[in-house]
Amino acid sequence: MSDKSQSPSVPQFVDRHIGPDPAAVDTLLNTIGVSSLDELAAKALPAGILDPLSADGVAPGLEHLPPAASEHEALAELRALADSNTVAVSMIGQGYYDTLTPPVLRRNILENPAWYTAYTPYQPEISQGRLEALLNFQTVVTDLTGLEVANASMLDEGTAAAEAMTLMHRAVRGPANTLAVDIDIYPQTAAILATRAEPLGIEIVTADLRDGLPDGEFFGAIVQSPGASGRITDWTALVGQAHERGALVAVGADLLAATLITPPGEIGADVAFGTTQRFGVPMGFGGPHAGYLAVHSKHARQLPGRLVGVSVDADGSPAYRLALQTREQHIRRDKATSNICTAQVLLAVMAAMYASYHGPDGLRAIAQRVHDKARAIAAGLAGAGVEVVHDRFFDTVLARVPGRAEQVRAAAKERGINVWVADVDHVSVACDEATTDAIVADVLAAFGATPAAGDFAGPAIQNRTSEFLTHPAFSKYRTETSMMRYLRALADKDIALDRSMIPLGSCTMKLNAAAEMEAITWSEFARQHPFAPASDTPGLRRLIADLQSWLTGITGYDEISLQPNAGSQGEYAGLLAIQAYHNERGDTGRTVCLIPSSAHGTNAASAAMVGMKVVVVACRANGDVDLDDLRAKVAEHADRLSALMITYPSTHGVYEHDVAEICAAVHDAGGQVYVDGANLNALVGLARPGRFGGDVSHLNLHKTFCIPHGGGGPGVGPVAVRAHLAPYLPGHPLAAELSDRHTVSAAPYGSASILPITWAYIRMMGAAGLRSATLVAIASANYIARRLDEYYPVLYTGENGMVAHECILDLRGITKATGVTVDDVAKRLADYGFHAPTMSFPVAGTLMVEPTESESLAEIDAFCDAMIAIRAEIDKVGSGEWPVDDNPLRGAPHTAESLLIDEWAHPYTREQAAYPLGKGFRPKVWPPVRRIDGAYGDRNLVCSCPPVEAFA
Ligand SMILES: *Cc1c(COP(=O)(O)O)cnc(C)c1O
Question: Modified residue N6-(pyridoxal phosphate)lysine is at which positions (predicted)?
Answer without folding.
Answer: 703
